[in-house]
Design a protein that fits this description.
- By secondary structure, the protein is of the alpha+beta class.
- The protein folds into 2 domains: 6-159 and 294-301, Ribosomal Protein S5, domain 2; 165-290, Alpha-Beta Plaits (2-Layer Sandwich).
- The chain is built from 10 helices and 11 strands.
- The chain has helices at 61-72, 96-111, 118-129, 133-140, 177-182, 190-209, 215-218, 225-228, 235-241, 268-280, and strands at residues 6-15, 24-39, 43-47, 79-86, 143-148, 153-158, 165-171, 249-252, 259-263, 285-290, 298-301.
- Strands 1, 2, 3, 4, 5, 6 and 11 form a 7-stranded mixed β-sheet that branches. Strands 8-9-7-10 form a 4-stranded antiparallel β-sheet.
- The longest helix is centred in the middle third of the chain and has 20 residues, at 190-209.
- It is globular, with a radius of gyration of 19 Å.
- The two termini are 18 Å apart.
């Protein structure tokens, strides 16, 4: 019998997809698994790779988020036994923190007797992240197009085209979200704003309709990617030329440094091109193909109901 009361498995996510800045995300098949139960003394165990530097004290993000959920539910905050394992690399633009937030909230919600709906958890997680793209994709799976204000998240979830897959180039260096945010300007020209609105609308429409022929143009961006090219050498070359090697569209994944290309064909040529371009610019990377995740968070509860 499983010794934990709840196990959650949360997919990673890629956000923005170019022009969908802070409002479009897609879940991918790399996972964080969180096991949790109430106990007499808090303990946190980390398993596997990708968790280097994560605290095992009550300063751990997953513990703190779980305590937040109990507080929102107006319950005394219990001591917790937590086990964490993750396939998602940290600070690479693949939503590792969003997966942790969503997973911790969902697990604690089960232990608290499920006082909150999935939409309420979506709102809480968006409040913490500051935007609804990563957390929405990890929670719901598929592609999520969303807006967030302090009262609610409004969203549409769609399934990616069945033939779509992603090629991700994960550079072997970390890039903090704060640094990637700090390089962005405080204001934009009217021309750039109109460009951004048009391309974001086109991207959302292409994803909803499944018209992937529009993605190369729709994923082009003037809000964040031009200002982040200096942080990821070789990125501008990939953005301009990856479509010649089979990419339907290409973008910086989240705040980076991972670069993600969407494709619907054999991907070896595209993988090699992305690896080689980054290497030519002094960046070693791991390039792999990831399939979109359509399930979102998966929850196993072993709580006994009296």
């Amino acid at each position: 019998m499983e010794k934990f009361d709840v196990i959650v498995r949360v997919p990673c996510s890629t956000a923005n997809l170019g022009s969908g800045f802070d409002c479009i995300g897609m879940a991918l098949q790399l996972y964080t698994t969180i096991k949790m139960k109430k106990t007499s003394n808090t303990s946190i165990l980390l398993r596997g790779e990708n968790l280097e530097g994560i605290p095992t004290t009550k300063e751990n993000l997953i513990y703190k988020i779980a305590q937040l959920i109990f507080k929102k539910a107006k319950y005394d905050c219990p001591e917790l036994e937590i086990e964490i394992e993750s396939e998602i690399p940290l600070t690479r633009g693949l939503g590792s923190s969003a997966a942790a937030i969503v997973g911790a909230m969902a697990a604690a919600n089960v232990l608290a007797g499920e006082p909150f709906t999935k939409d309420e958890l979506y709102l809480f997680s968006s409040e913490l992240e500051g935007h609804p793209d990563n957390v929405g994709a990890s929670l719901l799976g598929g592609i999520v197009i969303a807006t967030y204000n302090e009262e609610k998240v409004s969203y549409i979830r769609v399934s990616p085209p069945p033939e779509m897959k992603t090629v991700v180039a994960v550079p072997h260096f970390e890039l903090s979200t704060k640094l990637a945010r700090d390089v962005l300007p405080n204001s934009y020209s009217k021309e750039d704003a109109v460009y951004a609105i048009g391309h974001s609308a086109l991207l959302a429409s292409a994803l909803v309709s499944g018209n992937t022929s529009l993605l190369n143009e729709a994923m082009r961006d003037r809000i964040h990617q031009p200002f982040r090219t200096s942080l990821v050498p070789g990125m501008n070359v990939l953005l301009d030329h990856a479509h010649q090697y089979g990419a339907l569209g290409i973008a910086l994944s989240g705040a980076g440094p991972t670069i993600i290309a969407l494709t619907d064909r054999e991907d070896e040529k595209l993988q090699q091109y992305m690896h080689d371009v980054l290497l030519e610019h002094g960046i070693s990377s791991t390039v792999q193909t990831l399939i979109p995740d359509n399930q979102g968070i998966q929850i196993q509860s072993f709580v006994t109901v009296n």
